[in-house]
C-alpha cells in the first residue's frame, strides 16, 4: 500500500472513534491509531482503545502520554470536580480545555513522520455535549492551520482532516458501524467508567450512547454497573 493511503486515526476507545476507524479502513487506508493517556479519570477508555485496535491485524497503535490533569479545569481530569449526571445548559464541565487542539497537533506531527496526508477524528455536531472543538468550523480552521504549519504541506502534500461523523446522529453512527462489522461491546464511552470498563449509565456520554442504540433499533451491548 502506498504511503499516500496511510491515515492517522484518533481513537479514544469510545463508540464514535471506533466507528471512524472502521470507516477509514473501509476506504482502503492503512490505519495508525493514536490514543492519549492525558490524565483522564476514566482510564478504562485506554484499554478499550487498545482492544479495538488490536483486533484488527493491520492497525498500528500508539499511546502518547500527556499531563492535561496538571492544568485541570475539567471533570474528566480533576477528581475534585464531580462528573454531572443531569443535563445542563451551555458548555459542560466535562469539556477539557484545548484537548482536541493538542490531540490534533500531535496527530499532525505523526502524520508528517509517516508520510500521511490524512487524519481521521470522531467529532460530531449533532449528538454531542456542546464542546466548541467538535464543531465543523473548528475542524476546517485546524485544517487550514495544519497546511500552513508543516513541511509536507509546503512541499505540496496537502493534509486532510476527515470528520465523517460530523452530521450523523448517534443512531446513524451505530448503524453505520454495525454494517462495517464494529463490535461495540469492545468500546467504553462512560466519563466515569470503572477500571473494569463498567459504565455508570448516568453521565451525558452514557445517555447519548444508550439512546443511540435505541434509535438504531439494536440491543445495547454496554456493560453497566447496575
From TrEMBL:
Binds 1 zinc ion per subunit. One of its GO terms (molecular function) is zinc ion binding. The keyword Metal-binding applies. Its cofactor is Zn(2+). Keywords: ATP-binding, Ligase, Metal-binding, Nucleotide-binding, Queuosine biosynthesis, Zinc. Zn(2+) binds at residues 190, 200, 203, 206. Pathway: Purine metabolism; 7-cyano-7-deazaguanine biosynthesis. It is an enzyme of class 6 (ligase). InterPro entries: QueC, Rossmann-like_a/b/a_fold. GO terms for biological process: tRNA queuosine(34) biosynthetic process. It comes from the Bacteria. ATP binds at residues 11-21. Its EC number is 6.3.4.20. The keyword Cell inner membrane does not apply. It catalyses: 7-carboxy-7-carbaguanine + NH4(+) + 2 ATP = 7-cyano-7-carbaguanine + 2 AMP + 2 diphosphate + 2 H(+). HAMAP family: QueC. PANTHER family: 7-CYANO-7-DEAZAGUANINE SYNTHASE (PTHR42914:SF1). Catalyzes the ATP-dependent conversion of 7-carboxy-7-deazaguanine (CDG) to 7-cyano-7-deazaguanine (preQ(0)). This is 7-cyano-7-deazaguanine synthase. It comes from Sediminihaliea albiluteola.
Amino acid at each position: 500500500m502506498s504511503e499516500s493511503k496511510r491515515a492517522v486515526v484518533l481513537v479514544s476507545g469510545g463508540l464514535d472513534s471506533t466507528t471512524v476507524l472502521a470507516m477509514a479502513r473501509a476506504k482502503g487506508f492503512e490505519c495508525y491509531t493514536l490514543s492519549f493517556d492525558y490524565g483522564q479519570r476514566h482510564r478504562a477508555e485506554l484499554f478499550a482503545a487498545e482492544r479495538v485496535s488490536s483486533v484488527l491485524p493491520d492497525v498500528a497503535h500508539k499511546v502518547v502520554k500527556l499531563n492535561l490533569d496538571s492544568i485541570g479545569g475539567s471533570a474528566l481530569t480533576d477528581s475534585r470536580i464531580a462528573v454531572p449526571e443531569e443535563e445542563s445548559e451551555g458548555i459542560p464541565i466535562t469539556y477539557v480545555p484545548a484537548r482536541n487542539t493538542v490531540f490534533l497537533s500531535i496527530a499532525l506531527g505523526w502524520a508528517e513522520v509517516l508520510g500521511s496526508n490524512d487524519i481521521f477524528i470522531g467529532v460530531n455536531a449533532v449528538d454531542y455535549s456542546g464542546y466548541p472543538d467538535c464543531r465543523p468550523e473548528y475542524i476546517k480552521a485546524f485544517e487550514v492551520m495544519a497546511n500552513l504549519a508543516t513541511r509536507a504541506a509546503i512541499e505540496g502534500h496537502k493534509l486532510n482532516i476527515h470528520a465523517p461523523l460530523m452530521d450523523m446522529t448517534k443512531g446513524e453512527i451505530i448503524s453505520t458501524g454495525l454494517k462495517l462489522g464494529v463490535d461495540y461491546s469492545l468500546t467504553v464511552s462512560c466519563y466515569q467508567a470503572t477500571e473494569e470498563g463498567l459504565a455508570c449509565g448516568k453521565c451525558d456520554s452514557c445517555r447519548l450512547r444508550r439512546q443511540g442504540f435505541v434509535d438504531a433499533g439494536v440491543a445495547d451491548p454496554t456493560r453497566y454497573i447496575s
